[in-house]
What we know:
Residues 10-69 form the HPr domain. By secondary structure, this protein is an alpha+beta fold. The protein has one domain (4-77): Histidine-containing Protein, Chain: A (2-Layer Sandwich), CATH 3.30.1340.10. It is 40% helix and 26% strand. β3 (47-53), α3 (57-70) and β4 (74-77) form a beta-alpha-beta unit. The termini are far apart.
Amino acid sequence: MSNNAAIVDISQIASRFRSSIVLQAENKYIDVKSILGLFTTLVSGHSYELHVHGPDADEAKAAMAEVFAKHNLAISIVAD
């Protein structure tokens, strides 16, 4: 399965929010709004942590949880 559709989808949805949305994969931190960053990091079967901070964080968390689930990618959203 190619992740290209997932990557474009995830970064487009992330870009709607003012909040900072950062994906933690082991010891790497990737800005979810960066398509290139996602290409080099996102692998299905891995589990990721998502850190969301900003004025619309609650909406961003909900949208991110939805889009990751839609593409069968496992994330846990880290509470502040």
